[in-house]
Amino acid sequence: MSALLKLSEGLRRLLEWIALASGWLLVIMACVTTFDVIARKFGVPLPYTKLQELEWHFHAAIFSLWMGYCYAINAHPRVDTFTEHMTYRGRAWIELGGCLVLALPYIAIVAYYSLDFVAASYQLGERSDSTVGLTHRWIIKGVYAAGLWLVVFGILSVLLRVIVFLFGGKSEREVNLQIGHVITDV
Question: Does the model's pTM come out above 0.70?
């Protein structure tokens, strides 16, 4: 069971590293957005379509690269009305069922087919619908696909912790299992 816990922690640390490294995209996106707004305000003739598309590419990349980590640390939206009065062990059983029956199968299928989505875009040489828009649309689609695979890793990280908690005789503190309503310091 300690090997499963180490694997789970390794996945969580990888997801954390990717999320924190990609956090710098926020700074770049803020600069691009600021430049776009100022240039428009002063009437600077620029390809504004490219700037706007670049802005949404950055938004999409940030969201995609953080999704897996957010799942792993329970920072995603939850409706805990059903589970808020359950024991921690009961919530862990719900989490196990949710991961195995709902989250993992769905995200794994979508992530698997996202690779074809990216490959088709690359083969077609897909670009923006706008004649002055960005080219190489497959890049942002690849980031979407990577984000889906990161969610798969996040689900696996949580799933492994739940398995160790339920079947390995370790406490919630030992496995660092964050499920249900969690209050964290930010």
Answer: yes
User: CB–CB of 86/181 below 8 Å?
Assistant: no
Mean pLDDT computed over 139-149: 96
- Per the listing, tokens 């919530």 go with 91
Indicate the pLDDT class of residue 182, thresholds 50, 70 and 90: low
User: Which tokens belong to 4?
Assistant: 């499963």
Which residue ranges make up each domain of the chain? 2-175
- 35: which 2 tokens? 């430049």
Q: Give Cα separations from 96 to 4, 21, 171 (angstroms).
A: 15, 30, 16
